[in-house]
Amino acid sequence: MLKDKRIVDLTRVLTPGAERFKLDIRTFFVDELQPDFHRPEGEWYVLQEWQISSHIGTHIESPYHHIKEGPDVSELSIEKLIGEAVVLDFRHKRAGQAIKLKELQPHSGDIRAGDMVLIRTGFDREYGKPDYDRPYLALESLQWLVERGITCVGIDASGIERYKAEEQPGHLLLFSHGIPVIEELTNLDRLKRKRVLLIALPLPIRTADSCPIRAVAIEEA
C-alpha cells in the first residue's frame, strides 16, 4: 500500500524535564503498582505514571479549548484528521508579522474544500527557546480559510495568534466552525510535495481540550 510513497514524521520528540510544558514520567516495577502481577526476580517489567500537559509538543486543540459547549478531543472527527493537506510556505515572514489575506489569496488555487492547511514558517527551529516570538495568521486570513471549507489549520510554530495577545479571536473563529488547530509541527522542510496525505490523530480522551499527536505526512516518492 505504501509502495512508491515517502513517509515524513512531522512530530516533535519529547524529553521529560526538558519541555516548556509539563512532562514528568515515574517508572515502577509492575508489582509495585499491581501487587497481583508476578515479576520474576531481576526482570525488567515496568509500569509508568505520567504527568503531562495537554499542550506539550506537537498537539491538536479542540473547540473545547475555548468554547465550553464545544466538542472535546474525543469528539473530533477522525475522518477530518486523515486526509489531504496543502502546505503553504511563509518562511519569508519574520517574528511578530501577520500572514495577511493578500498573501494567502495567491494560494487560492491550491486550497480545496476539505483540505487541512499546514502553514510553514520555519520557526520550528526556535522550539525549546524560552519566550520566542513567531509569525501569526491575521483574523481575515483565517476567515478566508474558513470560507474555503478547510477542516484543520496546522503550523510549525507555537501558535496561530499574535504572540501573547490578550484575546484569541482566531481560535474562537475556527472553533466556532468546528475546525481544530495543530501547533508545533516540525519537519515541513522535509516535504517535497505541496500536497500530502496527513494523519494527525489524538487519543480520544473525554473532557480533554487538547492532546499531543503523532502527525505523519505521506507523499508520492
Question: Any overview of this molecule?
Answer:
This protein has about 220 residues and is mainly beta. It has four helices and 13 strands. It has two domains: about 170 residues, Putative cyclase (Glucose Oxidase, domain 1, 3-Layer(bba) Sandwich); about 30 residues, no CATH class. Strands 1-13-11-5-7-9-10-4-12 form a nine-stranded mixed sheet, covered by helices on one side. The protein starts with a strand and ends with a strand. The mean pLDDT is about 95.
DSSP, total strands:
13
Radius of gyration equals: 19 Å
**SSE string:** EEHEEEEHEEHEHEEEE
Structural class: mainly beta
What's the mean pLDDT score?
A: 97
The CATH architecture name of the largest domain reads 3-Layer(bba) Sandwich
Specify the CATH class of the largest domain.
Answer: Alpha Beta
Brief overview, please?
This protein is mainly β and 221 residues long. The protein contains four helices and 13 strands.
Features:
mainly beta, 2 domains, Glucose Oxidase, domain 1, 221 residues, two-stranded antiparallel ribbon
List the helices and strands and how they pair.
Blueprint: E1 5-9, E2 23-29, H1 30-33, E3 46-52, E4 59-61, E5 82-89, E6 98-99, H2 101-104, E7 116-120, E8 136-137, H3 139-147, E9 152-155, H4 169-176, E10 181-183, E11 195-201, E12 210-212, E13 214-220
Parallel strand pairs: 5-7, 6-8, 7-9, 9-10
Antiparallel strand pairs: 1-13, 2-3, 4-10, 4-12, 5-11, 11-13
